[in-house]
Every structure is written in structure tokens, then in C-alpha cells.
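PROTEIN FOLDING TASK:
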Amino acid sequence: MLECPVALVDERFNTGRKKTSWVLGAAIALFSIYIVFNFGELFGLVAMIATQYLQL
């Protein structure tokens, strides 16, 4: 799952693949942890946006 983002960052910024893999993996892990611990609030936010602003 990290192959495409790692390849893109490696090509654009000329970084090493190993370092880029660790940095992107850590960033994704931190974002995932935030979602897990704030799921209730985020779910409520998505439900509110979907019902109030996306109705045609």
C-alpha cells in the first residue's frame, strides 16, 4: 500500500526509499491512531456534513 506514495516522494524529492517508507508509514499510522481515538466525533461530523450540506 505504500509503494505508490513512496515512489512518488522518492522521485520528486530524491530521498532514499527506506527513509521515505518509514516516514510515510509513521505519518499514516499517526493519522490512523487519531481516527481510532476520535471516531465518535469524526463520525458525527461526517453525518452532519452529509445530512446538512450534501442534500440536493
